[in-house]
Write a structure and sequence with these properties.
By secondary structure, the protein is an alpha/beta fold. The protein contains six helices and five strands. The longest helix has 19 residues, at 161-179. Keywords: Lyase, Metal-binding, Zinc.
Length: 219
């Protein structure tokens, strides 16, 4: 079986985690608009993730789409459709990470805190270690914050089996959302592949998430 770009980038990560830099930060000169590796990455916005460094990507090789949690939202899907159909990418990589802030709240809790609920403000303050300041106002947007499914934990909690499971649930939901989207073909001559990983912010290593598998419980 031929080695994919995703396989090569995973090997780059092993070098990165061992202290060997792969990404070259210098300006590379004129580049074509299409990513040369035909890769699109959806990753969390966390400041501890430098996607180019941890994958050993060079300028011009991949599209990088980032948001809170690296969640496959409607906008991420929009970007992936454009990336694939107009700019010729055919491999998608999802990256979540340990100690993620999306494990520390629920959508309802954050909305209640923003609207002025004192109990929610207190819980959010305890979770984040900072004074949570309510706006005292309701809003129809964003419709969702996409907090990860499962019981909340303090912000920046070290990895354990439970939070790793929660992260894997969300990665699998993202893979499923892409694989089952009618405009992102999963088979045929124009098919895209999608694989998901969890990045350990304490070691620099990527760990692949198996798919299919459990995608979470509200209990």
């Amino acid at each position: 079986m031929a080695t994919s770009n995703t396989d090569e980038l995973f090997r780059n990560n092993q070098q990165y985690a061992s202290g060997e830099p792969v990404h070259m930060p210098g300006y590379p000169g004129k580049q074509p608009i299409q990513p040369s590796r035909r890769v699109a990455v959806v990753a969390c916005m966390d400041a501890r993730l430098d996607v180019e460094d941890l994958l050993g990507l060079q300028t011009g090789e991949a599209h990088i789409i980032r948001n809170a949690g690296g969640v496959v939202t409607e906008d991420a899907i929009r970007c992936l459709i454009i990336s694939h159909h107009l700019l010729n990418t055919n491999e998608i990589i999802l990256i979540h990470h340990t100690r993620c802030g999306m494990l520390a709240f629920t959508d309802d809790l954050l909305k209640a805190g923003l609207e002025g609920d004192a109990a929610a403000e207190k819980l959010l303050g305890q979770a984040t270690g900072r004074t949570f300041v309510s706006t005292g106002k309701a809003s129809s947007s964003p419709v969702a914050f996409h907090a990860f499914r499962g019981p909340i934990e303090p912000l920046d909690s070290p990895r354990d089996d439970k939070n790793m499971e929660r992260l894997a649930w969300d990665v699998r939901r993202g893979i499923s959302a892409i694989k089952n989207h009618p405009w992102l073909p999963a088979s045929g001559p124009d098919a895209v592949t999608v694989r998901g990983f969890i990045y350990d912010v304490d070691t620099g290593e990527l760990e692949e998430v198996s798919y299919p598998g459990p995608m979470g419980s509200i209990g």
